[in-house]
Amino acid sequence: MSKNPRLTRRGSSTRLDRKIFGVSPQKQNSTYAKFDLQEPPLNLAMQSGAGAISRVSHFGIEVDSTDEMLRWQKRLTEQGLVKLVESDTKCCFARQDKVWFSDPDGNAWEVFYVREQLPVAEAPACCG
Fold first, then answer.
1. 29-45: per-residue pLDDT in tens?
2. pTM exceeds 0.70, yes or no
3. Which CATH fold would you assign to the domain 2-122?
């Protein structure tokens, strides 16, 4: 996955991303930072900007196991970033475990593990 949001607080976002991912940006200057991650597979480039700032419902990082979910939850909790933990919740047409946090521009992020896919008719379309 590749994301390139325009942010008002690129410096704060870079510091937050160091905490979240546990690594420094691969490239960085006063207006740009790029994290090219192997785990999770993510190319995240951020630019400082004025005017139109990136806004989305939320960003998500899907993990492959309950153990990986627990590792993310532990790391984000240790960093003081967790806003909400959801266990065995039905959302987005799936039964999931989630940990939510926000970036400095107010964008919501979830780290989630899908326990089971649900039929579209049986699950609410929620999220964010």
1. 777 777 778 877 777 77
2. no
3. 2,3-Dihydroxybiphenyl 1,2-Dioxygenase; domain 1 (3.10.180)
